[in-house]
């Protein structure tokens, strides 16, 4: 569908034309008409589908209908879970409203409040905010939400995951009863219904790209590799694609730093972004990555939320996520704007159940790359229970740092069993203090028929 078939005015059509958009995305063609009509809209769409324009374009047009000269009031509030997403949404509103007199501001934590307060004092029509800074500035008297006509909750599921449910409820309390509400989310956990019931009036439901269907244009490969060989494999993979950009996901902040340091040591320019980094450091890293000054960006899931990089070549799942849906969000960073994208996952033996969960969710098998230098040798699973923080984490490991020699098959490598002493050593060490039963099963090749699927989706993080 073309943008001019949606009832958008010429200022907005020119703005999207300037950005090079030709056809609308599915969420845009479905959500823009009801939003223009003033309806509440509940949109099920993940990042990369064009959802920001889907809510921003009609909101700008609606606000323009009653735009008056004089002192500006906050007429639209967009709540976003992370600073990165807030900045991205702000940039989009600014780009789409560039031929209108509307003013947009963004407020988020982790930086000084001076500049944000000044922009609020100058008057804004659209405010994009993360919850913490919003309340902070509200309590200091710099934000008045009494004139909000359009309330937008972006990535609502991520808000809940990050523990913002009370902040959302608090925000709703500050807003006028009479308003248009738009809620966008990649998934619809049941807590969202509670919010929907509270704020929405017969919402129009629009759904695109269910989270279980990964974008077809993204290739998906998996390498089976021991945890301790992942760095070496990563370096191999990146060095083969010298001119490509890589967004690498780890599960923890510590690992993000570790991987980024290891890459830098090996001559691959890299930065890590995660919640412990200052906002300025995160933004700097992101800018360098976007400008191709660094080839790799290593990120945790929360920090990466909202990263919008055009022409990202690869997403690498250095560690598989605990939640299969997170995998879909991660790989959705590549293959944007209808381009081809590529994703690579590194899977150790203990992560195989996570891989199985992902394949069940996306309803397809991920292509296995057998030909690489670090084939899986350690087929040891830790005993479940104390000491194992996550299903995919191993409490002890064998040492398998040996690079495969030409003509040596993985079976031969495994036959050497040089890790046995290590395993014994580890067991002795770990039995210090409390008796921990570290007995591990030595298994043969993975037998899918033995795999017990995860029964319940444990959303705890
Ligand atoms: P979003 O899902 O809102 O994060 O958007 C993902 C990316 O798609 C952003 O880089 C947008 O600028 C871009 N985009 C949004 N709508 C379109 C469109 N109709 N055509 C081309 N690119 C688009």
Give the structure's gist in a few sentences.
The protein is 37% helix and 14% strand. With 461 residues, it is an alpha/beta fold. The chain is globular.
Describe the structure.
It is a single chain. The chain is α/β, with parallel strands linked by helices and 461 residues long. The chain folds into two domains: 3-207, P-loop containing nucleotide triphosphate hydrolases (Rossmann fold, 3-Layer(aba) Sandwich); 218-368, 3-Layer(aba) Sandwich (Rossmann fold), CATH 3.40.50. Helix content is 37%, strand content 14%. The protein is built from 17 helices and 16 strands. It has helices at residues 10-18, 26-36, 51-65, 83-96, 114-122, 131-139, 156-161, 165-174, 190-199, 230-240, 253-265, 279-290, 301-304, 324-331, 352-362, 410-416, 419-430; strands at 41-44, 76-79, 104-107, 126-129, 150-153, 180-185, 204-207, 218-224, 246-249, 270-273, 296-299, 314-317, 341-347, 367-368, 380-381, 441-442. Strands 3-4-2-5-6-1-7 form a seven-stranded parallel sheet. Strands 10-11-9-12-13-8-14 form a seven-stranded parallel sheet. A two-stranded antiparallel ribbon has the order 15-16. Helix 5 (114-122) links the parallel strand 3 (104-107) and strand 4 (126-129). Helix 2 runs parallel beside helix 3 (51-65), helix 3 packs across helix 4 (83-96) and helix 14 (324-331) packs across helix 15. The longest helix is centred in the N-terminal third of the chain and has 15 residues, at 51-65. It is globular and about 70 Å long. The model is unreliable at 384-461 (pLDDT under 50). The protein binds adenosine monophosphate. Adenosine monophosphate binds at residues 21, 23-25, 28, 47-53, 308, 310, 336-337.
């Amino acid at each position: 569908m073309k943008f001019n078939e949606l009832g958008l005015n010429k200022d907005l059509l020119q703005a999207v034309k300037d950005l090079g958009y030709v056809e609308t995305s599915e969420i845009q063609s479905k959500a823009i008409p009801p939003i223009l009509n003033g309806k509440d809209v509940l949109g099920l769409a993940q990042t990369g589908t064009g959802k920001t324009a889907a809510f921003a374009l009609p909101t700008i047009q609606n606000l323009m209908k009653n735009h008056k000269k004089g002192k500006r009031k906050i007429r639209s509030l967009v709540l976003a879970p992370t600073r990165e997403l807030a900045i991205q949404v702000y940039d989009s509103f600014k780009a789409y409203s560039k031929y209108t007199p509307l003013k947009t501001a963004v407020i988020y934590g982790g930086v000084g409040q001076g500049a944000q307060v000044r922009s609020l004092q100058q008057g804004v029509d659209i405010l994009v905010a993360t919850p913490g800074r919003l309340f902070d500035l509200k309590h200091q008297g710099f934000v008045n939400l009494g004139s909000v006509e359009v309330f937008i909750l972006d990535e609502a599921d991520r808000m809940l995951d990050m523990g913002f449910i009370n902040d959302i409820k608090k925000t709703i309390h500050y807003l006028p009863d009479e308003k248009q509400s738009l809620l966008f989310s990649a998934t619809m956990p049941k807590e969202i219904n509670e919010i929907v019931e509270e704020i929405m009036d017969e919402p129009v439901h629009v759904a695109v790209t269910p989270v279980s269907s990964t974008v077809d244009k993204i290739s998906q490969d998996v390498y089976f590799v021991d945890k301790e060989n992942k760095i070496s494999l990563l370096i191999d993979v990146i060095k083969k694609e010298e001119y490509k950009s890589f967004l690498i996901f780890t599960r923890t902040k510590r690992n993000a730093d570790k991987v980024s340091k290891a890459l830098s040591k090996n001559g691959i320019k890299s930065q890590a972004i995660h919640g412990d980094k200052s906002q300025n450091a995160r933004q700097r890293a992101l800018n360098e990555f976007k400008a191709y000054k660094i080839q790799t960006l290593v990120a945790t899931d929360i920090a990466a939320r909202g990263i919008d990089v055009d022409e990202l070549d690869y997403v690498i799942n250095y560690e598989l996520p605990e939640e299969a849906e997170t995998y879909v969000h991660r790989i959705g960073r590549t293959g944007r704007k209808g381009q081809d994208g590529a994703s690579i996952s590194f899977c150790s033996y203990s992560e195989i159940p996570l891989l199985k969960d992902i394949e069940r969710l996306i309803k397809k098998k991920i292509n296995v790359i057998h030909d690489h230098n670090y084939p899986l040798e350690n087929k040891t699973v830790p005993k479940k229970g104390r000491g194992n923080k996550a299903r995919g984490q191993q409490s002890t490991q064998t040492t398998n740092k040996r690079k495969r020699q030409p003509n040596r098959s993985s079976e031969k490598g495994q036959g050497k069993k040089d890790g046995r002493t290590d395993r014994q050593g580890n067991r002795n060490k770990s039995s210090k203090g409390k008796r921990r039963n570290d007995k591990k099963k030595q298994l043969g090749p993975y037998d899918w028929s033995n795999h017990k699927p995860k029964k319940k989706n444990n959303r705890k993080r």
